[in-house]
Protein backbone atom coordinates (compact mmCIF):
# COMPACT_ATOMS: atom_id res chain seq x y z
CA UNK A 1 0.00 0.00 0.00
CA UNK A 2 1.28 3.47 -0.87
CA UNK A 3 2.18 5.52 2.19
CA UNK A 4 3.83 8.55 0.62
CA UNK A 5 3.31 9.71 -2.95
CA UNK A 6 5.60 12.34 -4.39
CA UNK A 7 4.44 13.68 -7.72
CA UNK A 8 6.32 16.01 -10.08
CA UNK A 9 8.14 17.62 -7.16
CA UNK A 10 10.35 20.59 -8.00
CA UNK A 11 12.24 23.21 -6.03
CA UNK A 12 14.17 26.08 -7.37
CA UNK A 13 16.22 28.47 -5.31
CA UNK A 14 16.43 31.71 -7.27
CA UNK A 15 17.40 30.03 -10.52
CA UNK A 16 19.10 26.93 -9.05
CA UNK A 17 16.92 23.93 -9.94
CA UNK A 18 17.68 21.88 -6.82
CA UNK A 19 14.92 19.32 -7.54
CA UNK A 20 13.23 18.88 -10.91
CA UNK A 21 10.01 17.00 -11.55
CA UNK A 22 10.74 14.12 -9.18
CA UNK A 23 8.09 11.40 -8.79
CA UNK A 24 8.25 8.32 -6.56
CA UNK A 25 6.20 6.46 -3.97
CA UNK A 26 7.01 4.84 -0.66
CA UNK A 27 5.32 1.60 0.33
CA UNK A 28 4.08 1.09 3.86
CA UNK A 29 6.41 -1.08 5.94
CA UNK A 30 9.40 -0.67 3.63
CA UNK A 31 12.82 0.92 3.74
CA UNK A 32 13.42 3.30 0.84
CA UNK A 33 16.67 5.10 0.16
CA UNK A 34 17.33 8.34 -1.66
CA UNK A 35 20.85 8.37 -3.04
CA UNK A 36 22.91 10.49 -5.38
CA UNK A 37 26.16 12.43 -5.58
CA UNK A 38 26.72 15.58 -3.50
CA UNK A 39 24.33 18.37 -4.43
CA UNK A 40 21.89 15.96 -6.11
CA UNK A 41 18.91 17.39 -4.19
CA UNK A 42 18.40 14.71 -1.52
CA UNK A 43 18.28 17.07 1.47
CA UNK A 44 16.00 19.40 -0.47
CA UNK A 45 13.51 16.54 -0.97
CA UNK A 46 13.67 15.80 2.78
CA UNK A 47 13.09 19.46 3.56
CA UNK A 48 10.01 19.55 1.34
CA UNK A 49 8.57 16.34 2.85
CA UNK A 50 8.99 17.78 6.35
CA UNK A 51 7.61 21.21 5.42
CA UNK A 52 10.83 23.18 5.97
CA UNK A 53 9.98 24.88 2.71
CA UNK A 54 7.15 24.43 0.20
CA UNK A 55 7.75 22.87 -3.21
CA UNK A 56 7.94 25.23 -6.18
CA UNK A 57 5.81 22.63 -7.96
CA UNK A 58 4.30 19.23 -7.40
CA UNK A 59 2.54 17.48 -4.54
CA UNK A 60 3.32 15.26 -1.58
CA UNK A 61 0.53 13.00 -0.30
CA UNK A 62 0.57 10.96 2.90
CA UNK A 63 -2.09 8.22 2.79
CA UNK A 64 -3.70 10.13 -0.07
CA UNK A 65 -3.89 13.35 1.95
CA UNK A 66 -2.01 16.34 0.62
CA UNK A 67 0.68 17.52 3.03
CA UNK A 68 2.81 19.65 0.74
CA UNK A 69 1.38 22.97 1.93
CA UNK A 70 1.69 22.23 5.65
CA UNK A 71 4.12 23.57 8.27
CA UNK A 72 6.76 21.35 9.94
CA UNK A 73 4.81 20.93 13.21
CA UNK A 74 1.65 20.00 11.29
CA UNK A 75 3.56 17.42 9.26
CA UNK A 76 5.04 15.99 12.46
CA UNK A 77 1.50 15.60 13.78
CA UNK A 78 0.47 13.87 10.58
CA UNK A 79 3.06 11.23 11.51
CA UNK A 80 6.36 12.06 9.82
CA UNK A 81 9.45 12.42 12.00
CA UNK A 82 13.09 12.86 11.06
CA UNK A 83 16.63 12.69 12.28
CA UNK A 84 19.31 15.09 11.14
CA UNK A 85 22.71 14.80 9.51
CA UNK A 86 24.18 16.53 12.56
CA UNK A 87 22.83 15.21 15.83
CA UNK A 88 20.13 17.42 17.29
CA UNK A 89 19.73 16.14 20.82
CA UNK A 90 19.27 18.33 23.86
CA UNK A 91 22.82 17.78 25.11
CA UNK A 92 22.18 18.94 28.69
CA UNK A 93 18.96 17.00 29.15
CA UNK A 94 19.15 13.39 30.25
CA UNK A 95 18.97 10.59 27.75
CA UNK A 96 15.49 9.56 28.89
CA UNK A 97 14.19 13.13 28.78
CA UNK A 98 15.38 13.36 25.18
CA UNK A 99 13.41 10.25 24.25
CA UNK A 100 10.34 11.35 26.18
CA UNK A 101 10.42 14.60 24.19
CA UNK A 102 9.58 12.53 21.09
CA UNK A 103 6.25 11.53 22.64
CA UNK A 104 5.30 14.85 24.16
CA UNK A 105 4.74 16.24 20.71
CA UNK A 106 1.82 13.90 20.21
CA UNK A 107 0.30 13.25 23.60
CA UNK A 108 -2.60 15.63 23.23
CA UNK A 109 -3.52 14.43 19.77
CA UNK A 110 -2.81 11.31 17.76
CA UNK A 111 -1.53 8.79 20.25
CA UNK A 112 -4.07 9.64 22.91
CA UNK A 113 -7.06 9.77 20.68
CA UNK A 114 -5.94 6.45 19.26
CA UNK A 115 -7.12 4.76 22.41
CA UNK A 116 -4.88 5.40 25.37
CA UNK A 117 -7.63 7.10 27.34
CA UNK A 118 -5.84 7.26 30.65
CA UNK A 119 -7.52 9.44 33.24
CA UNK A 120 -4.83 11.87 34.27
CA UNK A 121 -1.78 13.71 33.06
CA UNK A 122 0.25 11.82 35.63
CA UNK A 123 -0.72 8.46 34.14
CA UNK A 124 0.07 9.85 30.73
CA UNK A 125 3.55 10.89 31.91
CA UNK A 126 4.10 7.46 33.45
CA UNK A 127 3.14 5.81 30.18
CA UNK A 128 5.62 7.99 28.26
CA UNK A 129 8.34 7.24 30.81
CA UNK A 130 7.71 3.47 30.59
CA UNK A 131 7.74 3.49 26.80
CA UNK A 132 10.98 5.49 26.79
CA UNK A 133 12.60 3.11 29.27
CA UNK A 134 11.54 0.12 27.16
CA UNK A 135 13.33 1.67 24.21
CA UNK A 136 16.44 2.33 26.27
CA UNK A 137 16.47 -1.30 27.37
CA UNK A 138 16.05 -2.47 23.82
CA UNK A 139 19.03 -0.34 22.77
CA UNK A 140 21.11 -1.39 25.79
CA UNK A 141 21.18 2.19 26.98
CA UNK A 142 19.17 1.85 30.19
CA UNK A 143 22.31 2.24 32.29
CA UNK A 144 22.81 5.66 30.72
CA UNK A 145 19.19 6.86 31.12
CA UNK A 146 20.00 9.61 33.61
CA UNK A 147 23.22 10.90 32.06
CA UNK A 148 23.18 14.12 30.05
CA UNK A 149 22.75 13.02 26.43
CA UNK A 150 25.80 15.04 25.37
CA UNK A 151 28.11 12.80 27.43
CA UNK A 152 27.31 9.65 25.40
CA UNK A 153 29.48 8.44 22.52
CA UNK A 154 28.46 9.65 19.07
CA UNK A 155 27.14 6.21 18.13
CA UNK A 156 24.96 6.03 21.24
CA UNK A 157 23.63 9.54 20.69
CA UNK A 158 22.59 8.45 17.21
CA UNK A 159 20.58 5.59 18.74
CA UNK A 160 18.93 7.99 21.19
CA UNK A 161 17.97 10.25 18.29
CA UNK A 162 16.42 7.32 16.43
CA UNK A 163 14.54 6.17 19.54
CA UNK A 164 13.18 9.71 19.93
CA UNK A 165 11.97 9.62 16.31
CA UNK A 166 10.38 6.18 16.55
CA UNK A 167 8.72 6.34 19.97
CA UNK A 168 5.59 8.11 18.79
CA UNK A 169 4.92 5.35 16.20
CA UNK A 170 5.20 7.72 13.26
CA UNK A 171 3.88 6.63 9.89
CA UNK A 172 7.22 7.51 8.29
CA UNK A 173 10.70 8.20 9.65
CA UNK A 174 13.18 10.14 7.55
CA UNK A 175 16.80 9.43 8.42
CA UNK A 176 19.34 11.90 7.09
CA UNK A 177 22.68 10.07 6.81
CA UNK A 178 22.12 7.87 9.87
CA UNK A 179 25.44 6.09 9.43
CA UNK A 180 27.55 9.27 9.31
CA UNK A 181 30.10 9.32 12.13
CA UNK A 182 29.49 5.68 13.09
CA UNK A 183 32.22 3.05 12.96
CA UNK A 184 31.72 -0.15 10.96
CA UNK A 185 30.41 -2.14 13.89
CA UNK A 186 27.95 0.59 14.92
CA UNK A 187 26.70 0.96 11.34
CA UNK A 188 26.09 -2.78 11.04
CA UNK A 189 24.18 -2.80 14.33
CA UNK A 190 22.08 0.17 13.32
CA UNK A 191 21.33 -1.51 9.98
CA UNK A 192 20.13 -4.59 11.89
CA UNK A 193 17.95 -2.38 14.09
CA UNK A 194 16.36 -0.70 11.06
CA UNK A 195 15.58 -4.10 9.55
CA UNK A 196 14.07 -5.26 12.85
CA UNK A 197 11.90 -2.14 13.07
CA UNK A 198 10.81 -2.65 9.48
CA UNK A 199 9.63 -6.15 10.38
CA UNK A 200 7.56 -4.53 13.12
CA UNK A 201 5.86 -2.43 10.44
CA UNK A 202 7.84 0.80 10.58
CA UNK A 203 8.43 2.67 7.30
CA UNK A 204 11.68 4.53 6.60
CA UNK A 205 13.14 6.81 3.99
CA UNK A 206 16.85 7.36 4.31
CA UNK A 207 19.46 9.50 2.68
CA UNK A 208 22.74 7.68 3.03
CA UNK A 209 26.19 7.72 1.43
CA UNK A 210 27.27 4.33 2.79
CA UNK A 211 26.35 2.18 -0.21
CA UNK A 212 27.05 -1.17 1.48
CA UNK A 213 24.44 -0.31 4.08
CA UNK A 214 21.97 1.07 1.53
CA UNK A 215 22.23 -2.08 -0.57
CA UNK A 216 21.77 -4.22 2.54
CA UNK A 217 18.73 -2.51 4.07
CA UNK A 218 16.79 -0.83 1.25
CA UNK A 219 13.84 -2.41 -0.50
CA UNK A 220 13.61 0.42 -2.97
CA UNK A 221 16.19 2.98 -4.08
CA UNK A 222 15.60 6.31 -5.81
CA UNK A 223 18.64 7.89 -7.45
CA UNK A 224 18.91 11.64 -7.97
CA UNK A 225 21.56 13.48 -9.95
CA UNK A 226 21.57 17.25 -10.42
CA UNK A 227 18.01 17.40 -9.08
CA UNK A 228 16.64 14.84 -11.53
CA UNK A 229 15.54 11.27 -10.80
CA UNK A 230 17.79 9.15 -13.00
CA UNK A 231 16.75 5.71 -11.77
CA UNK A 232 14.73 3.78 -9.22
CA UNK A 233 14.48 0.12 -8.34
CA UNK A 234 15.75 -2.65 -6.12
CA UNK A 235 19.38 -2.67 -4.93
CA UNK A 236 20.24 -5.23 -7.65
CA UNK A 237 18.64 -3.14 -10.38
CA UNK A 238 20.39 0.02 -9.21
CA UNK A 239 23.82 -1.60 -9.04
CA UNK A 240 23.48 -2.73 -12.64
CA UNK A 241 22.07 0.53 -13.99
CA UNK A 242 24.48 2.18 -16.44
CA UNK A 243 23.09 5.69 -15.91
CA UNK A 244 23.60 5.35 -12.16
CA UNK A 245 27.13 4.03 -12.56
CA UNK A 246 27.95 6.93 -14.90
CA UNK A 247 26.57 9.49 -12.43
CA UNK A 248 28.85 8.18 -9.72
CA UNK A 249 31.98 8.01 -11.87
CA UNK A 250 34.48 10.51 -10.63
CA UNK A 251 32.97 10.68 -7.17
CA UNK A 252 34.53 8.80 -4.29
CA UNK A 253 31.37 6.78 -3.79
CA UNK A 254 31.21 3.43 -5.54
CA UNK A 255 28.04 1.51 -6.15
N1 LIG B 1 18.40 26.90 0.95
C1 LIG B 1 19.04 26.86 -0.24
N2 LIG B 1 19.26 27.98 -0.96
C2 LIG B 1 19.89 27.93 -2.14
N3 LIG B 1 20.34 26.80 -2.73
C3 LIG B 1 20.17 25.66 -2.06
C4 LIG B 1 19.50 25.62 -0.79
N4 LIG B 1 19.47 24.31 -0.36
C5 LIG B 1 20.09 23.60 -1.34
N5 LIG B 1 20.48 24.39 -2.35
C6 LIG B 1 21.15 23.95 -3.60
O1 LIG B 1 20.36 22.90 -4.13
C7 LIG B 1 21.17 21.88 -4.68
C8 LIG B 1 20.83 20.55 -4.01
O2 LIG B 1 21.30 20.57 -2.66
P1 LIG B 1 20.97 19.44 -1.59
O3 LIG B 1 21.56 19.90 -0.30
O4 LIG B 1 19.54 19.14 -1.61
O5 LIG B 1 21.80 18.21 -2.16
P2 LIG B 1 22.17 16.84 -1.45
O6 LIG B 1 21.92 15.77 -2.46
O7 LIG B 1 21.47 16.73 -0.15
O8 LIG B 1 23.74 16.99 -1.22
P3 LIG B 1 24.69 16.37 -0.07
O9 LIG B 1 24.82 14.92 -0.38
O10 LIG B 1 25.98 17.10 -0.31
O11 LIG B 1 24.07 16.66 1.25
C9 LIG B 1 22.61 22.33 -4.50
O12 LIG B 1 23.03 22.96 -5.67
C10 LIG B 1 22.52 23.31 -3.37
O13 LIG B 1 23.55 24.27 -3.43
Describe the 3D structure.
The structure is a single chain. With 255 residues, the chain is α/β, with parallel strands linked by helices. It folds into two domains: 1-79 and 171-255, Rossmann fold; 87-170, P-loop containing nucleotide triphosphate hydrolases (Rossmann fold). The protein is 37% helix and 24% strand. The chain contains ten helices and ten strands. The chain has helices at residues 42-49, 72-78, 95-104, 110-113, 121-138, 154-166, 184-199, 211-217, 235-239, 242-248, and strands at residues 2-13, 16-27, 31-35, 57-62, 65-66, 80-83, 172-176, 204-207, 220-225, 228-233. Strands 6-7-8-3-9-10 form a six-stranded mixed sheet, sandwiched between helices. Strands 2-1-4-5 form a four-stranded antiparallel sheet, covered by helices on one side. The longest helix is centred in the middle third of the chain and has 18 residues, at 121-138. Mean pLDDT is 89; it is low at 109-115. Residues 4-251 form the ABC transporter domain. One of its GO terms (molecular function) is ATP binding. Keywords: ATP-binding, Nucleotide-binding, Transport. InterPro entries: AAA+_ATPase, ABC_AA/LPS_Transport, ABC_transporter-like_ATP-bd, BCA_ABC_TP_C, P-loop_NTPase.
Amino acid sequence: MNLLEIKNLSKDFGGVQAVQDVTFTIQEGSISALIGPNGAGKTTVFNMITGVFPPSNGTIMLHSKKISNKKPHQIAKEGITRTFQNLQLFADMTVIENIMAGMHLLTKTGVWNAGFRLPSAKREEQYIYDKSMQWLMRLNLDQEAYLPAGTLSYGKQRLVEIARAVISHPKLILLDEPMAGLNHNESEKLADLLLEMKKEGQTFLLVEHDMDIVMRVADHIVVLDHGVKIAEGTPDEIQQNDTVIAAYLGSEVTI
